[in-house]
Amino acid sequence: MSLLDRLKAQIAQDGPISVPEFFTRCLHDPRDGYYATRPDLGVGGDFITAPLVSQMFGELIGLWAIETWSRMGRPAPFRLVEMGPGDGTLMSDLLRAARLEPAFLGAAEVWLVEVSEPLRAKQAERLGDGPRWVGRLDEVPGGAPMILVANELLDCLPARQFVRTESGWAERVIGLGEDGELAFGLRSLGKSANAEVTPVPSPSPIEGEGRIDIGSIWESSPAQAALASDIAHRLAIDGGAALLVDYGRAAPEPGDTLQAVQNHRKVDPLKTAGLADLTVWADFPAVIAAAREAGAKAGPVLSQAEFLLALGIEARAQTLSAARPERADQIARQLDRLVGKAQMGALFKVACLCAPDLSPPLFEDAT
Ligand code: SAH
């Protein structure tokens, strides 16, 4: 029985499910979840990410990590952690760039946090047996500082969705339509046990500006906030910094960002359970607030273009093109894809969380 049919049967019996429950089943159901069974990244797969666009992305993150490590006082050992490493390309490019600083490589203990068995196999193929693999961040032992990177991980962590109705906020749920297929519905928030902590937006300032219309959707991701809090807590105790890169919002705003992608095309999330990648936008304001609450410095949020340009991606592109003139056009296209405003440069954002006593490069004014 397909995941879609199993979800329909469950809903018919027990009633509608929340968007996060649906999202988590679609990605991680042990029998049919997308990441559990068929993740397919890259040009020939379902979706492409920055490290797969160009080696320059991972290399520059490597330079950022080396400079951060220097500012931490060159600790040895330290944990070099990547969460959601995909096919291992980012870490492989980062480690190659880090050959510039052998002491960094000598001190780095590489930990990969990955829930997907098929992707762990891909990572092992690319990176060999140097890294250690765990399924959760809290399985990475404490007691040493950490430099953590994660590209397109926050967008894999689900958000609850709230809909503004005439009579206040209601939660968007997934039930069955009259035709027996999955359909979005609403569940009143009522006076449930946790009504006070239900993370719907406070009336101001956004409502004051009249930006929340009836029918508009507000997202809130307890899972993204919890991850930010876990990382920040660790950084506050053991020291270090985390770089989170993702597409998402830099300021609170309404909008339905739930998106399913298969074979590089948007598809209907309710018809493709387990067959497509499912994402929501990273909620950077909430991530930063949760990190500060947990004792770390965090922010500001930079665009991917600002981040990569400040690290010198244009000079890196020139060097690569000079070494391989026959590839110059391709490298120029890759550069544009990473930093172009109409491409990944503006929608993708970079946030840094760090220990209270650290000033990582490009995030000196984190508070
Ligand atoms: N960072 C890679 C891959 C992004 S795809 C790149 O940029 O190419 C998302 C990655 O996060 C995959 O490796 C996926 O298996 C992993 N992932 C998804 N949900 C996760 C979770 N809850 N915990 C840890 N990793 C997760």
Number of helices: 14
Number of domains: 2
Mean pLDDT: 94
The largest sheet, given as strand count, sense and whether it forms a barrel, is: 9 strands, mixed
Low-pLDDT stretches are 203-208
Helix content: 25-40%
Basic shape: globular
Description of the molecule:
The protein is α/β, with parallel strands linked by helices. It has 2 domains: 3-36 and 159-219, no CATH class; 39-157 and 221-354, 3-Layer(aba) Sandwich (Rossmann fold). The protein is 37% helix and 22% strand. It has 14 helices and 17 strands. The protein has helices at 3-14, 19-28, 34-37, 50-53, 55-71, 89-97, 102-107, 117-127, 222-238, 284-293, 304-310, 313-323, 328-339, 341-347, and strands spanning 17-18, 78-83, 108-113, 132-134, 146-151, 160-165, 168-176, 182-188, 217-220, 240-249, 259-262, 265-267, 277-279, 282-283, 297-298, 302-303, 348-354. The strands form 3 sheets. Strands 2, 3, 4, 5, 10, 14, 15, 16 and 17 form a 9-stranded mixed β-sheet that branches. Strand 3 (108-113), helix 8 (117-127) and strand 4 (132-134) form a beta-alpha-beta unit. Helix 5 packs across helix 6 (89-97), helix 9 (222-238) crosses helix 10 and helix 13 (328-339) packs across helix 14. The longest helix is centred in the N-terminal third of the chain and has 17 residues, at 55-71. The radius of gyration is 21 Å and the shape is globular. The protein starts with a helix and ends in a 13-residue tail after the last strand. Mean pLDDT is 94; it is low at 203-208. The site of S-adenosyl-L-homocysteine has 20 residues, from helix 4. Residues 35, 39, 41, 49, 51-52, 83-86, 90, 113-116, 119, 151-153, 156 line the site of S-adenosyl-L-homocysteine.
